[in-house]
């Protein structure tokens, strides 16, 4: 088991399940891209989403994530879906939703 408690058995189970599902490989690839983006941003910016400095805003991490999610949904509503930039907006939205789950779980 590694430092975060993810076992090799879990990795193997996910990889095997992805082979059995009709869109399994595509789903796995997309989720890995999101994970890579989130981990990269976490390495660059630290835990700013889950443990914000609160210099200007005094809102807690969950509330700040909800504001970011609102902003992304608002952008999608204004611009629609279909442009290359929308892919970044969708990836960011998915990332913020994952961070929200971590925040709600007390990560």
Sequence-ordered SSE layout with sheet pairings:
Layout: H1 8-20, H2 24-45, H3 61-79, H4 84-104
Helix pairs in contact: 1-2, 2-4, 3-4
What labels describe this entry?
single chain, 107 residues, mainly alpha, 0% strand
What does this structure look like?
With 107 residues, this protein is mainly alpha-helical. It has helices at residues 8-20, 24-45, 61-79, 84-104. It has a domain at 47-104.
Q: Percent helix among the residues?
A: over 70%
Q: Give the H and E element order.
A: HHHH
Q: What's the count of strands?
A: 0
Strand percentage = under 5%
Q: Helices and strands: which structural class?
A: mainly alpha
Taking all Cα atoms into account, the compactness measure Rg is 16 Å
- Give the CA-based shape: globular
Rounded to the nearest angstrom, the distance between the terminal CA atoms is: 19 Å
- Mean residue pLDDT: 90
So how many helices?
4
Low-pLDDT parts are none
Write a brief structural summary:
This protein is mainly alpha-helical.
């Amino acid at each position: 088991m590694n430092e975060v408690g993810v076992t090799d058995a879990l990795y193997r189970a996910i990889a095997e399940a992805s082979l059995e599902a009709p869109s399994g490989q595509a789903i796995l690839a997309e989720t890995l891209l999101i994970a890579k983006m989130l981990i990269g941003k976490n390495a660059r910016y630290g835990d700013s989403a889950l443990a914000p400095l609160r210099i200007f805003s005094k809102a807690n991490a969950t509330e700040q994530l909800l504001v970011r999610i609102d902003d992304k949904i608002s952008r999608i509503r204004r611009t629609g879906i279909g442009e290359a930039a929308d892919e970044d907006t969708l990836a960011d939205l998915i990332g913020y939703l994952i961070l929200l789950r971590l925040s709600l779980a007390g990560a």
